[in-house]
Design a protein that fits this description.
The complex is a heterodimer of chains A (about 300) and B (about 290). Helices cover about 70% and strands about 0% of the residues of chain A. Chain A contains 14 helices and two strands. In chain A, α6 packs antiparallel against α9. Chain B is an all-alpha fold. Helix content of chain B is about 80%, strand content about 0%. Chain B has 15 helices and no strands. Chain B is globular and about 75 Å long. Classes of the chains: A mainly alpha (about 300), B mainly alpha (about 290). At the A-B interface, α1, α2, α5, α6 and α7 of A face α1, α4, α5, α6 and α7 of B.
Chain lengths: ~300, ~290
């Protein structure tokens, strides 16, 4: 049924365009707080970091311009490459957790009763302090009396010093990262799943398609935009990981920390513990470039596998 | 005739499918239950450890239930950590940041969504660019500003940078844009000015988004470690995260005490989450952004 809405009388339309619309002044006034904050606390600091990355800055007092010295030093610094490798490995481990999240999200959508219960359980780590989570896992990973080694010993696997032996640290921290972020991924993927039209499933089951077939033929392709979103977000946040390392590995006598630092950990240490801000700034700029490159590559690749209808 | 026959065949197949799916339901619950156990096991282990003595917590093989349950860990924790002071700092910084973020984001989000002024697109673009830059790029400069203003070790120092997150503005702009223009036009025709329209007509309609933003901002504020670590060098006004991280240096492998601290510090936000689940879920779903 078509409803017949009369056009507003000409006089009123004219008035709307003229006096009743707020003047641009309101617009500027309303964005003023945001704009002042943005320029003072984001744009300016960004320029500061960029500028300092080309300077040698002592702990106090002004710095001196040294060109690309910080960057050449960085590229020749084994600890920097180690940190980059650690961050990349951690990110890769978190990406390996995504298929688990996809399957779990699909399963949770399938259950009728208990769906809310599972959602809450899987979300608990998201609302728990990361520092607290790290402390609990550090205890579980303890090489001498940790729960993990005990459980492993029951099935005959020898125990390890998970957070005190650099062979294992990134894997151990990565497992916690997967566990910690699962809840967030389930929410985003769950929202994507709910937007898939239900009649597609009904039609395909009338044609005799089983659940597994439906998952690969309907769910996965139609969920791919959400999977893409989760992938991009996971990479961005994983490349910035700091607190898990800071809490799980840092202690006076943990020698594994030296080989397990991530980019942001190295940045923190250089800029705010050793107060070598020029070098720290250069690390931050490289981090920005790495994240931008990783995101760009993913947007390029999405054409091959993301399905938009 | 053939049509009817085909339809009945289809229905039969569909019925067979649903029988299979009832069987599948069982498998699904087993998989989910096992995963759920993995998810909560660390929390359970933490709770069990809290009531053990340090000696019992560090023996191999470990005991499952505390042999001689004690609340000594809590006593040690509260006796050696200024927990209430840290809690006050965390809560004050959170409240300040949430109020500031909501005010800044609602005003700017509305202006970007609804008002026309020269340079609007350019300025919004600037916000979006800053949204994509990782937070570490701002830390050095933000630290200098806070230090030069003599604001190190203060609560505003913890809260202020987070108030101006471009993400909040983006979220609020999206919310305002989804409101049909008719509401606003009606208000204006009735003679309401820009501010009145904003406050009485538009703001109440984006309340769910504001709730989601508030919850998300709280989560970031409560969990943040790196920024508080940087701006509280003196250490007498530290939030819970920094205090908890420092606890480890103090207690080393006294795990019952550490677990007690981790538990007490996590509890407030977990309780708030249980009360406001929907806002948390919609906040995460709308953002997808992680802190």
């Amino acid at each position: 049924m078509t409803t017949n809405i009369p056009n507003p009388p000409l006089r009123q339309r004219k008035r709307r365009r003229g006096g009743l619309l707020p003047s641009p002044g309101w617009g500027y006034l309303m964005i003023a707080p945001a704009l002042i904050g943005l320029v003072a606390l984001y744009v300016w600091p960004f320029l500061t970091t960029f500028g300092k990355s080309f300077m040698d800055v002592p702990a106090f007092g002004p710095g001196t311009f040294t060109g690309v010295d910080n960057y050449t030093e960085l590229l020749g610094d084994g600890r920097f490459w180690q940190a980059l490798r650690n961050s990349a490995l951690y990110t890769a481990i978190l990406l390996l957790g995504l298929p688990v999240a996809i399957v779990l999200a699909a399963l949770i959508e399938q259950v009728g009763r208990g769906r809310a219960f599972y959602r809450i359980l899987f979300f608990l780590p998201v609302v728990t302090l990361p520092v607290a989570i790290s402390m609990v896992w550090r205890f579980i990973y303890n090489g001498d009396f940790g729960l993990l080694n005990y459980v492993l010993s029951m099935v005959g696997v020898p125990g390890q010093y998970w957070v005190a032996d650099a062979t294992f640290t990134i894997y151990a921290v990565g497992a916690v990262g997967i566990w910690m972020n699962l809840g967030i991924n389930l929410i985003i993927l769950g929202a994507g799943l709910q937007s898939i039209p239900q009649d597609l499933y009904e039609a395909s089951s009338l044609d005799g398609a089983g659940r597994v077939r439906q998952f690969f033929r309907i769910t996965l392709p139609l969920l791919s935009p959400s999977v893409f979103l989760v992938t991009v977000l996971t990479v961005i946040s994983a490349l910035q990981m700091f607190d898990l390392i800071f809490v799980m590995l840092r202690s006076v006598n943990n020698t594994a920390l030296a080989d397990s630092k991530t980019i942001v950990y190295l940045f923190y240490e250089k800029a705010f513990v050793e107060f070598d801000q020029g070098y720290g700034a250069a690390i931050a700029i490289v981090l920005l470039m790495v994240i931008m490159a990783a995101t760009l590559v993913q947007f390029r690749l999405q054409r091959r596998w993301v399905f938009y209808d | 005739m053939t049509d009817q026959f085909l339809r009945s065949r289809r229905l039969e197949r569909a019925a067979a499918g649903s029988k299979a799916s009832r069987h599948g339901e069982w498998v699904i619950h087993v998989v989910l239950a096992v995963s759920a156990v993995v998810m909560v096991a660390p929390f359970v282990w933490q709770l069990l450890t809290v009531f053990k003595s340090n000696r019992e917590a560090s023996q191999m093989p470990p005991t499952l239930l505390p042999e001689d349950p004690t609340t000594g860990a809590f006593a040690t924790f509260f006796g050696s950590v200024p927990f209430w002071a840290q809690l006050t700092v965390s809560v004050s910084a959170l409240v300040l940041r949430v109020i500031g973020q909501l005010a800044v984001a609602a005003l700017a989000g509305y202006a970007f969504a609804r008002l026309r002024f020269p340079g609007r697109k350019l300025l919004f673009g600037l916000f979006i660019v800053m949204l994509m830059v990782p937070s570490q790029l701002f830390l050095i400069g933000q630290f200098e500003i806070i230090r030069d203003l003599g604001m190190l070790d203060t609560i505003p120092a913890l809260a202020i940078p987070g108030m101006f997150s471009a993400f909040g503005i983006f979220l609020m702009r999206q919310a305002f844009m989804s409101i049909p223009a008719g509401f606003e036009e009606a208000a204006r025709l009735d003679g309401a000015g820009a501010l009145r329209t904003f406050w009485y007509i538009m703001l109440p309609m984006v309340r769910p988004t504001m709730a989601a933003l508030a919850v998300l901002t709280s989560l970031y504020s409560w969990n943040d470690l790196l920024w508080p670590l940087i701006v509280t060098p003196r250490g007498d006004r530290r939030p819970i995260t920094v205090g908890l991280a420092g606890l480890q240096g103090q207690f080393g492998t006294d795990y019952p005490t550490l677990m007690a601290g981790a538990f007490v510090a996590s509890l407030p936000l977990i309780l708030i989450f249980l009360a406001l689940q929907r806002q948390f879920f919609s906040g995460i779903a709308s953002s997808g952004l992680k802190g």
